Structures are given as C-alpha cells and as structure tokens.
Amino acid sequence: VTTLADIGEFPLIERLRGRLPRASARVAIGIGDDAAASEIAKPGELVVSCVDLLTQDVDFTAATPARAVGRKSIAVNLSDVAAMGARPVGVLVAIAAPKTTQVEWVESLYDGIASICSEHDVDVLGGDCSGVAAGGVTIAVTALGAARREALVSRAGARVGDRLCVTGTLGDAAAGLEKIARGADPASDDPLVRRQVDPIPRVAAGRALGEGGIATAMIDVSDGLLADLGHLLDASRVGARVEVGKLPLSPAIQSNRFEIRRLALTGGEDFELLFTIRPDDEAKARAACGDVGMTVIGEITSTPGTALVRPDGTLLPPPPRPGWSHFG
Amino acid sequence: VTTLADIGEFPLIERLRGRLPRASARVAIGIGDDAAASEIAKPGELVVSCVDLLTQDVDFTAATPARAVGRKSIAVNLSDVAAMGARPVGVLVAIAAPKTTQVEWVESLYDGIASICSEHDVDVLGGDCSGVAAGGVTIAVTALGAARREALVSRAGARVGDRLCVTGTLGDAAAGLEKIARGADPASDDPLVRRQVDPIPRVAAGRALGEGGIATAMIDVSDGLLADLGHLLDASRVGARVEVGKLPLSPAIQSNRFEIRRLALTGGEDFELLFTIRPDDEAKARAACGDVGMTVIGEITSTPGTALVRPDGTLLPPPPRPGWSHFG
Questions:
Q1: Partner residue opposite B84 with nearest CB, options A35, A134, A325
Q2: Predicted local distance difference test score (pLDDT) of residue B328
Q3: Residue B180 and residue A194: Cα distance in Å, rounded?
Q4: Is A128 in CB contact (< 8 Å) with chain B?
Q5: Alpha-carbon distance A38 to nearest alpha carbon in chain B (angstroms)
Q6: A136–B140: do the CB atoms touch at under 8 Å?
C-alpha cells in the first residue's frame, strides 16, 4: 500500500496525468506548465465559471467509492454551468487529502474525473494535490464553460405568467441518501442510490434551453426544489404556484415507502434543471430536454413566495425544512 | 464571537460578497447565480487557467494574519498566470474551514483577497465555503487570465545560447520563513518576513515579457531556483550554467547571518520570474521588468542539468535539497 506520504508530489502528478484523457484540440498548453492555455470561448462568447467544494463526511463518506466521488465532484459543477444555459468546456481540480490516503484511492478518484469529463467533451485543465496532517478529503472543482451573451440564463429572468418547469424526476437523490443511511451499499446499483452517488448533470438540456432562447430563468436543484425555487423567485422578484400533484416522480421512488412528497419538495442533489418559460414555448422546451424529459409543475405569480397547491385546489403548508445548508 | 457553525451558508456568503470590490465591466453575471459569466479573453486570445491549494500548517499557520493568507492565496496564482506571459483577469475561491472558525477570520481573509484583486484589476468570479468537522483551513484558488497565442510563454521554449534571467531578488522568502521559525512575528514589517507572508506576484513583468515576445521560456520561482530551473530545463530539453556570484540578493538578506547562497539557490516562494531570452534581447527584457529589476544569472547550454559556477570558474556541488515538495 502506497500513501501520499510515501510518494513525491511530482511522481504523484505524473501518475494522475497518465490517467486523464488526451486534451482536446482546444488546448494549446495543457497540464504540466505554470498554467494551461485553451480556447474556452469562441468569438462573441462569454466565459462561464463556478467552483464547488466536496468535503468528506458532508458530501461523501469513506465508504463512497472514490470513482463516484470523482465523478460527482465534476457533475455538480457541470450542472451549474448547464443551469446558465452554457456548454461546459474545462475543469480544474484541487484535492487536499490526509497524508495517510492511499495513492490508489486518489487514482480511482481521477479515473472517475476522467470518465465523466470524456462523456461531456470537457478538458481537465489543471490540478493541485496537497497532503494534509488531519481531517478528511476536500475536493474543489472549478468548471469553465462558454455561451453567447444572449444564450445565458440567469436566475433573475422569470416573469409573471411564465410556466415553471423541471427536467427529469425529483426526490430520487434524497431517497438514495436515506437508503444509504439505512444501510444500503453506496456501490449498489439501486437506481435511487445511483442518483445520490453518481448524479447525471443535465448538460445537453441546459445548453439547448439557453441556446434556443427558451428558458427565461434557470437554476439547478442542488439544495431541494423549494430552496432552489426560492433563490430563483428572490432573484426574479416574483412568486410561484406549484401544483404538488404534478411533481415528476420516478418509478423507483414510487415503489418505496419513503415520504415521497417531502423528498420531492425538499430533497437535495437531484441536479435537475428548474426553469421558467413563456407559456407558448412548452413544445420547444420539451424538445430541448429530449429524453431527460420535462414537466410543467406550476407558474410564476406576482405573489411573493411559493404557494403549494394540492390537486383539490387547497393549499399545502410548506414543509418545515426548506432545503440543505452546509452550516445547518 | 460568531463561528461558521453559528451562521447559515447564505448569510455568510452575503457577508463575504459585501466585502468584495464591485465587479469590473467585464462581468455580465457576477457572484450569486449558478455561475458567473464574464469576458475573460478578447477575440484572438486564449484563456489561461491554473489552481493552487494553500493548506494550514503547510502554507500558513494559525498565527499568520488571515488577511495575509487571503492575499497570498491569490498572489501564488497570479504569479502562475504571469509566468505564462498572460494577464490575470479573474479568480474563484473555495474555502474549507473547521466549523469552529470565527466568521471574522474568514472576513479578514476575504479583505485580503479583495485588496490584492483590486490592485491587479482582477474580478472575484465565484466562491464556495464549507464547514468541516476536523483539520485545518484549506483554500483552493483558481485564476483565469488571457493572452494571445503568440504571447504565451511555456517552460519548453529555452534554446542553447539563451540568457537565463530572474526578476527581483532570491532567497528572501525562505529567509523570512526561517525568521518566523526562530520566533519572528508573521505580522511584523521586517522585509524578509513580508516577502514570505505577503509575496508580490510579478504580474506586469510577466505580461510585458510575454506580450513583447521577449521571454522564450518562463516559470515562477515557487519551489526554489534550482528546482524550478530544473522544471524549465526538463521541459526545454536543455541544460544551464548558473553563475552563483550573480544571484540577485536583497540588502535585507545580505544583512542577515543566514546561509545566503543556499537560500538563494533552494529557497521557495520568492515568486520571482525565471526566464530565458535571446542574447540580443537583454535591454528589452530589462525594460519589460521595470522597477522590479532583472538579472542575467547564466545561460542555456546543451549539457543536461545545472552547472553552478563560482566567480573563480570552479564548479559548486549542488546543494542536497533541490527544492520544496508537499509530500517530502
């Protein structure tokens, strides 16, 4: 067994570089110099950038397969880029890990990073790795993307009368987390566990909704539907009416005994896209989302806050915990 | 006293955002959305990107002023961008800190980040902050910059006969580190301590050396002159002859009793630029470096490795420790 304390920094970097896919034609100078140089944006495009931390015992545990941790560390960032209506182009990865960490663990992490980057034609443009004396593994990923200014979708563009839409299905990742808490193996192929451990960013849908000028506002569901809808409504200075009977639920979550409605409303980490469209654009939006699917779950109103409406028209009181906060 | 455990994630982010300078005109969508969108590169330019981790008890200690930690976390990255011959444009900052960390500490860290970014017209384009259960503070900064393809200076362009040059003075930061180890206050205004705690990236010099087509290869001195020269020589597949009598030394280091030559050859974190030029370009290079100054310390040869030559022409054996490695 080789640990980070046994291997030099440069030999480690060489071993990790060897596991990454070949750089795309966009990259003029790749990993191994002071910095990388690449064509991120085409003429007329802006660069989209974001950073997200994953920390052990908050976002994953020692039992989570390293490959899945690597994939998820990239996925959450690609999801943020997609939620801007942009296409992801590159990532940079910084890892702080205890010196007792096995090199093989870091290699598996990089295999995961390499696999998801290949799937989305994303270059790994840089990295850093530090051995720390105490604490768990921390992974900071920066994602870079590009979009024309007109394609960008902020959280602030929702207008009264817009339809509120969401891709895919809600609550699955939270249901998976509960399964793991109850003893399910994080490596199992249970579909709910997979959505928690290895989420799929809605890259193609986000880009199509932006480039097509379809979404008027957009955010990804990372903290839970109600929490993220709250961010979108605050930024747009509007309210929303959500029909709880229309929340999209997967067959897997419906076959479980969990509190499905609570999970769909407040469960984090689904990484679906929550967006608004003009009433006439529903067919276009459906086409943009393709096989991922989309559901109209409500509409934007002038009344601040979110009204949850039951199928019989009565209001549902909001659940007590609106979403996830790292310092809760 | 308020700690990270006492404050919500979003209130913290709001407090930190309030301490940052106003975004430049380049920024179309700033902090507060899923990602930022900005004009990083002008038409015809490439995007330069790098990431560097600073970890507590490796790169700073609990005694280091938070403001200086913030400044240094940015400085080391701006130095990498400068070493490509590029101009820095934006940074993204991710911080993992124990939940017991005082919010005031994080605010001072951000004050430092804000101050150095203002000095260099660099936007803070994104951030993330996580409270962790154990371990020290980890800061991962990604820097973005831009340069025309012809202005980019990799490590690989040194040719036999090129002059080897370095900006500023060498060994000061390592001398400062030794002073701190011997009890000097990291907040003192001793010039050697300041170079260790609050290094100044050679942003203007790097950019001018790149844009002027002057440097043929370049790297910043972060691991120590010999270590970083080794990286440059390996990448360029050449050797070098260094005249140890010509190493630039500050008045401050000369007034100390340290082993000056060892510090100048192997001391890390000076963040000077080490670069090569064609023999005819010395005057141009001197003009590009301006007040920071530059010194020709040797030349590129076809003999692999570094020959250290004393003023009398005899060879100096290489020092035992060529530089700094995080996993040493």
A1: A35
A2: 33
A3: 50
A4: yes
A5: 5
A6: no
B-chain CB neighbours of A217 within 8 Å are none
Average pLDDT of the residues in A226-243: 97
Q: In angstroms, what separates the C-alpha of B312 from chain A's closest C-alpha?
A: 35
Query: What 8-state DSSP symbol labels residue A83?
Result: T
A235-270: per-residue pLDDT in tens?
A: 999 999 999 999 999 999 998 777 888 899 999 999
Q: Which residue has the tokens 């908050």?
A: A58
Question: Crossing angle of helices B66-82/B103-119, nearest 10°?
Answer: 40
In the prediction, which pLDDT does A10 show?
Answer: 80
Would the pTM of this model clear 0.90, i.e. be above it? yes
Starting from the edge strand earliest in sequence, which strands make up the sheet with A215-220, in order?
A: A215-220, A273-277, A163-167, A294-301, A239-243, A305-309, A315-316
The residue to which tokens 């990089």 are assigned: A110
* CA nearest neighbour of B84 among B39, B151, B3: B151
**Per-residue confidence band for B248, with pLDDT thresholds at 50, 70 and 90:** very high
Report the residue of chain B nearest A227, measured CA to CA: B10
> How many angstroms separate the CA of residue B152 from the nearest CA in chain A?
8
Picking from B46, B94, B138, the nearest residue to A38 by CB comes out as: B46
Closest by CA position to A52, among listed A105, A13, A91, A5: A91
pLDDT of res. B201? 98
CB contact under 8 A, A48 and B58: no
**ipTM higher than the 0.90 cut:** yes
Residue A89 has pLDDT above 60, yes or no: yes
Q: Sort out which chain B residues have CB atoms less than 8 A from A3's CB and list them.
A: none
Q: What sign does the dihedral B180-B186-B190-B193 (CA atoms) show? A: positive
Cβ(B300)–Cβ(B202) below 8 Å? no
Is residue A177 within 8 Å of A93, Cβ to Cβ? no
Rounded Cα distance, A142 and A136, in Å: 20
Q: Is B258 exposed, middle or buried (0-12, 13-18, 19+ CB in 10 A)?
A: middle
Minimum-distance CB partner of B327 among A7, A38, A52: A7
Strand partners, A60: A56
Partner-chain residue, chosen from B49, B126, B135, that has the shortest CB–CB distance to A36 = B49
Which residue in this structure is represented by tokens 């360029």? B236
The alpha carbon dihedral of A23, A25, A27, A30 has a sign of positive
- Contact between chains at A133 and B57 (C-beta distance less than 8 A): yes
DSSP state of B21: P
